[in-house]
Amino acid sequence: MDWMLEQGLPPCKVSLKERDLNGKTIRYVVASEDLKPGDLALSVPMSLVVTLERVLGNETIAELLTTNKLSELACLALYLMYEKKRGKESFWYPFIRELDRQRGRGQVAVESPLLWTSEELDEYFTGSRMKEVVLERLEGIKREYQELDTVWFMAGSLFKEYPFDIPTEAFSFEIFKQAFVAVQSCVVHLQGVSLPRRFALVPLGPPLLAYKSNCKAMLKAAGDLVRLEVDRAYKKGEQILVWCGPQPNTRLLLNYGFVDPDNPHDRLSVEASLNTRDPFYQNKRIIVQKNNRLTIQNFQIFKGREKEAVLEMLPYLRLGHVSDPYHMESVFSAEGPTCPVSACNERAVLDQLAQYFQERIAKYKTTIDEDRALLEDCSSDINPKQRVATQLLLIEKEILHNTLDVVNGFRNQLPDGSVAPPCCGDFVPKLK
Fold it and tell me: Labelling 48: which of 36, 88, 90, 369 has CA 20 to 30 A away?
């Protein structure tokens, strides 16, 4: 704060507080006076914001780099790593020191799973696809690390003030990964600005500002300032919240190290695909395309909207199960849960869905009740990583159980005696 004030930070209506959380000291932004909705809480000059405009200084180079092999996050991380090597000579020294202290830990003092050990990923994410998400992102970071020298050679003149080796010789992958995660945890996506200003590291921004999924306030660019107008009333000393965008909890945990139980954007995905061994595959492929679907289609199951998701999936799966060309065109024209083919075909579809969700639920090591009991236990000896992972898995299980209940409800509406036909079992759609 002292550094920002010295560098021209305009008067603002926020201050910093500290609290101990999970054995770590967390700093966070609070209202320094009572605020009402629409009040301007803070304005940060662009001269105190780290963007690609400052890093590369050239919009053409910025666009070339970020549309090929390197992301904005990788370029920002590389820039700050070189600046860190300059020590107190760097203009950004106070900001970098705070980023180092934070070490990518979010608002609950838990670092991104990208920095967890393999053993922790195995232990805490059993049954969840979160581990796959983490490993895929790590592979992406590794590819970017291997391309870092590109920015050095393409924009070498911009790095002439750094008397150090080229990136992959100056920094190990582990150092780059830590820097990447730190940048990822606090980068702000500014709207309505040029490409070099789109991704910004804003002092007093996240993670000092806490993210909330149902908040409407966000940092916005206005000329040479980044401003924050609050969307709700705050009493002096209350923590300031900002919107994190429409991100599911997997992204919130991956990027910022926390899970939001009230996240209206949380969802699970189900991948359904037509079976290429089906003798009617080509006919069905044409039909799904006419109905704005793909041969490999992702369906999103939003928390609280599980019935909508099942109703969206049913026509696609009905088509996959149909073995009579006469009925193929009609499956997408049915309204609601009514099957235009037969009760037996519907039984096959719903049985497959039920088995799929049962198998996904069975992969978890713990039940919903066990997860709730752990989260209600406030003892300090519970691993913070385990706690936040359990929050994620509990929500996943609730979505899966709710969806299974919807499917079973439809099954119970079928006529007694309807039996799934065994004839086309080898050609049914695949669910993943």
Answer: 36
